[in-house]
Amino acid sequence: KVSANTTEFEMVAKIDHARLAGEEGVVMPPSVLTIYTVPGVNTALMKANPRVGLDLSQKILAFEEKGEPRVSYPTSKFLAARHGITDKEALARYDSGMTAGLRGLDAELLIPVGADGLTQDYGIVELVSDFPFRETIDRLKAAVMKSDRYDPVFQRTFAEYARYRGFVIDA
Question: Are 94 and 79 in contact (CB under 8 A)?
């Protein structure tokens, strides 16, 4: 069993992927994502670039690979590269918080997610709207004609726009 040291963290959520897969009739090895926050860490990073919120709070994934326990987590180098953050003090606080969460775990179990080959904004799609925030959200909601986990239906013009812009609408 692998678990993170949470004494200096405030737990936000724990997602048991294997349990959720089991509810769908799929058997998979143990995999638990634990999401924590460390007081004083997120605010400075969010101030540097609000998009870093996509990768915060601190996340630790404990999983089994080939029968062996593993623990993976994003490093400050990952955050710096993906979000263009240069605030060394904020990144150091992030590392301190992550180190505290991993304290006591065997170093051989750890698989840090680094920045090799990562470019700024990798995997981030940003929506730019001429409308106020609330109206933008309402318009996006209106684009979904039928909300269905397996067979959603989207407004024709929204679907055409997606094809024109080259992105896939996937529910």
Answer: yes
Q: Residue 2: pLDDT band by 50, 70, 90 thresholds?
A: very low
The whole-angstrom separation of Cα 72 and Cα 105 is 12
97 or 20, higher pLDDT: 20
Q: What phi and psi values does residue 26 have, to the nearest 5 degrees?
A: -110, 130
**CB under 8 Å to 110, separation ≥6 — which residues?**
70, 71, 72, 73, 102
Pairing status of strand 153-154 against strand 144-146: antiparallel
Between CA 59 and CA 32 the distance in angstroms is: 10
Chain center to CA of 148: 24
Three-state DSSP at 13 gives strand
State which H helix or E strand residue 105 sits in: none
For residues 152, 156, 157, 160, the Cα torsion angle rounded to the nearest 10 degrees is 80
Write the CB contacts of 146 (distance below 8 Å, at least 6 apart in sequence): 152, 153
pLDDT digits (tens, 9 = 90+) for 89-120: 999 999 988 888 888 889 899 999 988 888 89
Q: Is 33 helix (H, G, I), strand (E, B) or coil?
A: strand
Residue with tokens 């904004």: 121
